[in-house]
Amino acid sequence: MTSQPSLPELSPAQALPDASEAIAEHALHRDAVPGSSPLTPGPDEEQENIPRVGAGFIATYMFAYFGLNLVMLMPALFSLAYKVQLIDPAGKDTSLGLVIGLGSIIGLVFGPIAGVLSDGTRLAWGRRRPWIVVGLLLAAAGALVVAVVPNIPLMIAGWSICQLAVSVISAGFNPVLAERVPSAQRGKVGALGGVAASFAGVGASLIGSFLTGNILLLFMLPPAVFAVGVLLFIFVVKDKPAPAGSTRPSVGDVFKSFWFNPRQHADFALVFLGKFLLQFGFTFFSTFSFYFLLDRLGFTPEQAGQNLAAAGGISLLAMMGFAVLGGFLSDRLKRRKPFIYLAAALIAGGLITVSVAPSITLFILGGTMLAAGTGAFTSVDLAMATDLLPEPEKAGKYMGIYYLSSGIPGVLAPIVAPVIIGIGGGGNYPALFIAGALLAVGTAVTTWRIRGVR
User: Fold this and answer.
1) Looking at residue 11, what is its pLDDT?
2) What is the DSSP string of 129-188?
3) From its phi and psi, is residue 426 left (phi > 0), alpha (psi between -120 and 50) or beta?
4) How far apart are CA 14 and CA 2, in angstroms?
5) pLDDT recorded at residue 333
6) pTM assigned to the model
7) Is the Cβ–Cβ distance between 289 and 433 less than 8 Å?
8) Average pLDDT by consecutive 10-residue portion of the chain (454 residues)?
9) What pLDDT score was predicted for residue 402?
10) Which residues of 419-446 are buried (b: 16+ CB within 10 A; e: fewer)?
11) d(Cα 160, Cα 104) in Å, to the nearest integer?
């Protein structure tokens, strides 16, 4: 049931793998020194010159990443849906879709711009720290707006500020793995960051369920937790200005780099489309599972949040088990496609199970299947994408494109979903989840057509 995405558009069990995956993807494209291959060190920071990091660094990294994911996931998984149904109970599906979908446009557009500007920052305080601190202030401001405003248009404005904040923070935070952690430790540190993000995803709904009596605290707690992480981060993690001789592409060049010819590079286009379809279905579930528990199973908001957290905890175990096992077996067998087929089958089956669930038990079963499929998918999808890069020497460009396969659905799916929910007079969440299952089947089809990997 848990981002990527890569993170705010995922559910507790579903957003979890995308969190660790986002670290890896950003390390491949956004973290590179402009002008150098993102798979090799830049001229100012050779791999062998990066000292090993200790327990203090790793603990700080994990806590800061936990706080960042709480900032993203607690509103997306619980807080926004809770407040929307208070403001507009009759039209909550459409209103929530607009808040999340329209607000996410800002993050999708500004993310690449922030990454480019961060690479060239030459302040005495550092290259990355200013972006993290400014992003924290924006996150607090956006959360405050969402908490106090009385209508949906102003909620959209507030959530847009929050999404801008995440882009700004990410521009400063995501490069840390590549710039401050030696390659021999990146897998370990990245995995631990993913674990921290996973706990943030599970805790988001649970924490939210206990704060429904105080809307201001409900929205302001995540930035407050992240602020503690930022304070530790500033003192523990070293930073310095961008090198005087470094160059960076223009913003226009960055956006031009997102184009490629899908006919010429059909395999890469298919792997992009496969993840796009799967993420679309994920977002259907993650955005509206809270309302499903309210309207179909009759829970109160507090009960819904607690049950989502319980489901997320169980799903987390399934996701991690399938992710680890899938990654090991995929490398050992030198096969990628069978794991995508398995993932698509589990996710489609999980969504169909949830769509007909008459009880929380069956809902949790479906969510666990979803999480297992998500783990199987994330164990191989990044490896498959890198195997199919059209031009390996331009890995940064193509991994940046691939990252959009999870970002674009975060904008479109919440806006499209209310149309499906409205079939038959409204409240048709089963139709929405079945549509997500069909999209998962589409991922299996696109994978079958790929010829460059087995």
Assistant:
1) 32
2) HHHHHHHHHHHHHHHHHHHH--SHHHHHHHHHHHHHHHHHHHHHHTTHHHHHS-HHHHHH
3) left
4) 1
5) 76
6) 0.81
7) no
8) 34 32 33 32 51 88 93 93 95 95 89 80 82 95 97 96 92 82 77 81 90 95 96 87 73 75 83 91 92 94 92 86 79 81 94 94 94 84 75 67 84 94 91 96 90 74
9) 78
10) ebbeeeeebbbbebbbbbbebbebbbeb
11) 7
Query: What is residue 393's predicted lDDT score, i.e. its pLDDT?
Result: 62
242: tokens are 């961008």
User: In whole angstroms, what is the distance from residue 36 CA to residue 43 CA?
Assistant: 8
* pLDDT at position 13: 31
> Which two structure tokens, joined as six digits, stand for 312?
């997320």
Q: Which residues 6+ apart lie within 8 Å of 89 measured at CB?
A: none
In which residue are the tokens 């990628």 written?
A: 336
Q: With CA atoms as reference, report the closest residue to 27 among 47, 12, 8.
A: 47
* Distance (Å, whole) CA 413 – CA 405: 12
CB 32 within 8 A of CB 176: no
Going by the DSSP 8-state scheme, the letter that residue 79 receives in this structure is I
**pLDDT given for residue 117 in this prediction:** 80
Provide the residue type at 346 as one letter. Answer: L
Other Cβ atoms within 10 Å of 316 Cβ, number: 24
Cα 414 to chain centroid distance, Å, stands at 15
| Residue 142 near residue 162 (C-beta atoms within 8 A) | yes
So what's the pLDDT on residue 139?
Answer: 96
Tokens representing 193 are: 């960051």
In angstroms, the Cα distances linking 388 to 41, 122, 187, 398 are: 22, 36, 21, 10
pLDDT score of 246: 66
Structure tokens belonging to residue 286: 């993650």
- The token duo for 453 is 């990997």
Sequence-separated (6 or more) residues with CB below 8 Å from residue 92 = 81, 84, 85, 291
Q: How far apart are CA 253 and CA 233, in angstroms?
A: 32
Instruction: Please report which helix (H) or strand (E) contains residue 228, including its range.
Output: helix 215-236
Do residues 375 and 318 touch, judged by C-beta distance below 8 A? yes
